[in-house]
């Protein structure tokens, strides 16, 4: 087996063991393989071993890989998730090429994605990014404003609000990790109480996936544990 396939299986085993540990239903947590900065060959290797959902942060890089994979391995039917910050001038290619967007944090972006989603495609799945720890350096709607934003976005055509995403302030304190993820889950419950159906909590990365799963994550975003260390040099 290859290194990527070994790593992929180890991550999946860890997720499934953590589900059991915290009495979560079996395979209730999806793995989103974060493939930013890694080439199409790495994605192909993971896909050939069963991984279908891939997360990308950088639009131009992602579009090149999506095109390559659709041309060279169309039988794989991969699912593409945009998880990076979104500028207004980038919404059209995101709306046209991705299946999910995890990083919507304002109404303007959601409206543009709605207007620019091709009618021939399935509705674009949306998660609202919440700045759960209140960090000035991070994107995301404030916890106080997320319910109102969800109500507005849920009414837009051609997009489907699925849930919430967060990247909490890093900490090695598991209790603090769980507190942040619990807060996100409770915000999701407030939105559901307004009559909006949600099914996704995109939370948890390599350093805090156990705390995230314990608090109800349905999708964890894992990159280096699968693909190895990143080289950001361009």
Automatic annotation (TrEMBL):
Transmembrane domains' residue ranges: none
SUPFAM superfamilies: PLP-binding barrel
UniProt similarity note: Belongs to the pyridoxal phosphate-binding protein YggS/PROSC family.
Annotated source species: Undibacterium rivi
Record-linked InterPro entries: Ala_racemase_N, PLP-binding_barrel, PyrdxlP_homeostasis
Entry annotated with the keyword Flavoprotein: no
CDD domains attached to this UniProt entry: PLPDE_III_Yggs_like (cd06824)
NCBIfam families attached to this UniProt entry: YggS family pyridoxal phosphate-dependent enzyme
Residue list for modification N6-(pyridoxal phosphate)lysine: 36
Gene3D superfamilies: Alanine racemase
Function in brief: Pyridoxal 5'-phosphate (PLP)-binding protein, which is involved in PLP homeostasis.
Domain Alanine racemase N-terminal: 25-230
Pfam families noted in UniProt: Ala_racemase_N
Protein name stated in the entry: Pyridoxal phosphate homeostasis protein
